[in-house]
Design brief:
The chain is mainly alpha-helical. It has a single domain, classed as Up-down Bundle (Growth Hormone, Chain: A), CATH 1.20.1250. Helices cover about 80% and strands about 0% of the residues. Helix 1 runs antiparallel to helix 6, helix 3 packs across helix 17 and helix 13 packs antiparallel against helix 14.
């Protein structure tokens, strides 16, 4: 309890200290003095967006498994802690009211880095799981706030044509964070476990994340555009009216309920599979798994997976910018969903050849990089446009994460109850609604 009190106090002090510093002309709040090329900030800021999300939603599964936590407990809690990415629409309107979007991006990156440092220090404690989940919750809240402001900068600084051009870079570097963390850092953890043990290996990994996020906050304090000034709010009443207007205008958008269903279903199969995949790939053959070590898993994901991610994301951006989203949406939906069928084949036949397992992982990573672009652009170009596009994009992405989170929360129970083979049959069935909707979903805005 003493450590929990200290952690709680640290969380409060971190927020107050950072935002107090940023009110001054400190390095964290230096305004942009000239126009920055998108490649000077788009890759790095979307890598910073991806790292906390991937560490919490994917790598924490492996870390907690290595530290002896039960599967069902892992999948439930690591799904629940990403709740802030679902609930971020509740506070996204407030980010329209205060300071600049750069202010929130730089500040939350620093908060996330310091929280990872505290997470590393909590792992040796007897009741580490409680403290780790609490700190991950703080990282999730900070990361979700970071995402709102980052997307606001992207939409405000770039026009529609430029958005389509760099959407591939955005997706590529978000996904590079996935392979760096879920590939490279997992591989490094496996190597370190041989020399310094499991506990200290994962302390080093979370410490690396802390250093990276703090370094990125310092970089972006110089290189990130402001992303537009806040609306001028003179009173609490004005603020409340602005807040309610943001919500009301979102739900008055044409086809919004249709769009909400499509956004949730687009990643439903992925939400079911993503938590179970590391457990399936690491489980012994006798348990129905593929028997990969941390090193093998990290090496495949961190090398071939990285190349597939980058290639898929960048190709998709250029492909959609030439063909248009309306004509390519079904193909994009197919590429993010259908590769999970390879895991069904692995579960059925359990081939001993590492090349077959590696091929399945590479196909899934390429498909994810290629297909995720479709949903991102759909939310930007069909759901977000209007006066409150930053907040409305946050609404859309929050709805997307709701389906992703709920599916992940029950995925461990489903796989434990039915086994990996039947589990991936259920994943295959979950693809069908998204594929059907992608053929008929209406477009509000023309020119895509």
């Amino acid at each position: 309890m003493l450590f929990f009190s200290v952690v709680t106090s640290c969380k409060i002090n971190i927020f107050f200290c950072i935002f107090a510093v940023m009110k001054t002309d400190s390095p964290l709040n230096i305004p942009a003095t000239r126009i920055r090329h998108p490649l000077q900030w788009v890759p790095s800021v979307y890598f910073a967006m991806g790292m906390p999300f991937v560490m919490l939603s994917l790598v924490s599964v492996i870390m907690l498994k290595d530290l002896g936590v039960a599967n069902a407990k892992i999948t439930f809690w690591t799904s629940l802690i990403i709740l802030p990415w679902t609930l971020k629409p509740l506070w996204s309107p407030f980010l329209e009211m205060f300071r600049t979007k750069k202010y929130f991006v730089v500040g939350t990156q620093l908060i996330t880095g310091l929280s990872f440092a505290l997470l590393a220090l909590s792992l040796p404690l007897p009741d580490f799981f409680t403290y780790a989940i609490a700190l991950m919750g703080l990282i999730a809240f900070s990361g979700a706030t970071h995402d709102i402001a980052t997307d606001g900068i992207y939409m405000n600084e770039l026009n529609a044509s430029t958005q389509a051009t760099y959407i591939g870079w955005q997706g590529a570097f978000f996904n590079i964070a996935k392979v760096v963390c879920n590939g490279g850092l997992v591989f490094l953890a496996g190597m370190l476990m041989k020399s310094i043990g499991t506990l200290y290996a994962w302390m080093v990994i979370t410490g690396i994340c802390a250093g990276v996020m703090i370094a990125l906050s310092l970089y972006h304090s110089r290189m990130l555009p402001l992303g537009g000034a806040a609306d001028k709010i003179k009173s609490f009443k004005d603020g409340w009216l602005s807040f309610t207007e943001v919500f009301a205008t979102f739900f008055r958008k044409r086809y919004i309920w249709y769009y909400m269903a499509f956004i949730i279903l687009y990643r439903l199969a992925e939400g079911l599979a993503i938590k179970v995949l590391p457990l399936f790939l690491k489980a012994d053959f006798a348990e129905g798994g593929m028997g990969l070590t941390n090193e093998n898993y990290g090496l495949i994901v961190g090398t071939l997976g990285t190349l597939a991610f980058i290639l898929g994301s960048i190709l998709a951006g250029h492909f959609v910018s030439k063909k248009g989203l309306r004509r390519t949406l079904f193909l994009l939906c197919c590429t993010i969903n259908l590769p999970f069928l390879f895991y069904l084949l692995l579960a059925i036949y359990q081939p001993a050849q590492m090349t077959l397992t590696g091929t399945a992982i590479v196909c899934e990573y390429f498909g994810y990089g290629f297909g995720f672009v479709g949903l991102t652009l759909f939310m930007m170009q069909q759901v977000a446009p209007g006066k409150h596009k930053m907040a409305h994009y946050a609404f859309a992405s929050g709805i997307m994460n709701l389906g992703y989170m709920l599916a992940g929360m029950v995925s461990g129970w489903i796989s434990d109850s039915f086994g990996y083979e039947l589990f991936f049959v259920i994943v295959a069935i979950a693809m069908i609604p998204a594929l059907a909707l992608s053929r008929i979903v209406p477009f509000t805005h023309s020119g895509e």
